[in-house]
Amino acid sequence: MSADIGLIGLAVMGENLVLNMEKNGFVVAVFNRTLSKVDDFVNGRAKGLKVIGTHSLEEFVSKLKKPRRVMVMVRAGDAVDKIIEMLLPLLSKGDIIIDGGNSYFEDTTRRTKELEAKGMMFVGAGVSGGEEGALNGPSIMPGGTKGAWKEIGPIFQAIAAKVKEGVPCCEWVGDGGAGHYVKMVHNGHEYSCCQAIAEAYWVMKEGLGMSNEEMSGVFSEWNLGKLESYLIEITAQILSKKDEQGTYVIDYILDKAGQKGTGKWTVMSALELGVPVTLVSEAVFARCLSYQKEDRVFASNIFTGPREPFKVDQKQFLNDLHDSLYASFLVSCAQCFVLMGAAGSRYKWDIDYAAVAHMWRGGCIIRSSYLENIFQAFQLNPALSNLMFDHFFSSEIQKCSPGWRRVVAATSKSGVAIPVISSGLSYYDGLRAASGPANLIQAQRDYFGAHTYERLDRNAGQYFHTDWTGHGGSTHSQAYNI
Ligand code: NBP
What is the distance between the alpha carbons of residues 281 and 270, in angstroms, rounded to a whole number? Predict the structure, then answer.
């Protein structure tokens, strides 16, 4: 029996992907650095299945049909390079290595070039959906050597999640690191959504004094409407989960949020490309602040600001909170698509944004009903520069804005921090302001550094300098932007 595909890395994602492939009729060879895990797997969850356990990379490669398809599902970083280095002498021209981990997109671009130079193919495929998705249908975002798609596409599309028409949540994304870039931005949006939901939870708990069961009920109800999404659904379940002692699990989890880098990378890329991705950045920094637990405990004894329940009509306020959460999800998504657009132009990836929205509709952590609207928006206008300009988005956000403002005002008054929800509103207000205060910034820059400015009454591209103090020279700095 020879294998259709091989998988290296039998941790939570790898094992479940193998079982998913096998369930879909593919024979899979497996290998893992710690060999005992191979035996545990083939004699345990994979017992009796078309899964071939191997105990060396030589044996692993010898079991694969040609062209060989090797999927690597290990911790991102050096481990991927080490495995590639060990595989290279064992593979032939035309063989394909697929990195399914959360690798940094620039590493993927580099690896693609290096393997292509050796006559091989490399694919960086973002996989989302966690353990459950890997087993029953993840969202898969592959990019790299285009020629590999016809060889791996049938396997990936078979194991991917399907949305209602049976269309797989897996399409070719683009060259080089495009697949991992899209997965990175997916995770960035996940950061905003998780944080915005956490803020809504905190507003209900601290501001409205609601119990875990009541909050769980609200999230369950929200999940039946416009906010329908995996993250809202699991939040409802998390809030009502009790341990064997009958205590709510949520109440004894330490309030320090971890992170593995994809949110930070999204923000780094946004800074590099000059795209405001403010909700993701607030979400990343909120996790950083959450981690400074000792400082927060210390500061809580120094700064005695307002910390009191809201004086509001609870039912009305919950509607407002719903709207502010929904608007925040939409704005974060819009910013993330603008970012992918900028990256597509910078790196010359021909990304189909409707296909990206489609891939995110099922299987992945950010799956939600509004992704259908994003899909439709890009189908209608593939060149849409900002989703906020699409009719659906603009009308939904405008409808939400009165409640959104009431939530930001009430939380600010009562001293409850909601960085993602409030920065979403600031972005919205900034975007819809045809005139803003940046004229003053330009004046300050020209004052202290002779950086020059453009004028409203002259053509763009003409730069002026003012001698603000009366004793400056006429020499000015060159006009350029980073
Ligand atoms: P982990 O990220 O925990 O990685 C564990 C696997 O990496 C094990 O098989 C381990 O082998 C292997 N490994 C390591 Br660590 N260093 C290695 C090395 N130098 N050489 C060979 N193998 C090495 O597993 P995971 O959570 O299944 O995630 C796998 C990838 O998928 C990661 O990139 C992750 O970011 C990504 N991802 C994870 C999720 C999720 O929900 N967990 C979701 C989506 C994507 P060993 O058994 O010998 O230690």
Answer: 9
Distance (angstroms) between ligand 1 centre and the Cα of 134 equals 13
Is residue 37 within 6 Å of ligand 1 at its C-beta? yes
Residue 352 φ then ψ, to 5°: -95, 105
Phi/psi for 140 (5° steps) reads: -125, 130
- Measured CA to CA, the distance from residue 49 to residue 44 in angstroms comes to 10
Q: Which CATH class is domain 437-482?
A: mainly alpha
190 is catalytic: yes
Cβ-based neighbours of 421, under 8 Å, separated by 6 or more: 196, 199, 200, 324, 325, 328, 404, 407, 408, 411
pTM assigned to the model: 0.95
- Protein residue with least CA distance to atom 19, ligand 1: 79
Q: Is 105 helix (H, G, I), strand (E, B) or coil?
A: helix
Q: What does the pLDDT look like over 234-250, one tens digit per residue?
A: 999 999 999 999 999 99
DSSP 8-state assignment for residue 65:
P
* Segments making up each domain of the chain, as ranges: 5-176, 183-431, 437-482
> 298-329 burial, b if ≥16 CB within 10 A, otherwise e?
eeeeeeeeeeeebebeeeebbebbbbbbbbbb
If we measure between CA atoms, which residue out of 131, 278, 124, 292 comes closest to residue 191?
278
Centroid of ligand 1 to alpha carbon of 258 (angstroms)? 17
Q: Domain 183-431 - what CATH class?
A: mainly alpha
Ligand 1 neighbour 86 (Cβ under 6 A): no
Model confidence at 473, pLDDT cuts 50, 70, 90, reads confident
Best residue for ligand 1 mutational test, from 74, 127, 131, 169 (most atoms within 8 Å of Cβ): 74
Ligand 1 atom closest to the CA of 76, numbered from 1: 33
Q: Are 386 and 161 in contact (CB under 8 A)?
A: no
Q: What is the pLDDT of residues 59-84, one digit of tens each?
A: 999 999 999 999 999 999 999 999 99
CATH 3.40.50.720 fits 5-176, yes or no: yes
From the list 183, 206, 226, 396, the catalytic residue is: 183
Task: Among 13, 54, 82, name the best residue to mutate to test ligand 1's pocket (greatest count of ligand atoms within 8 A of Cβ).
Answer: 13
> What is the pLDDT of the chain when averaged over all its residues?
96
Catalytic hit among 151, 171, 190, 282: 190
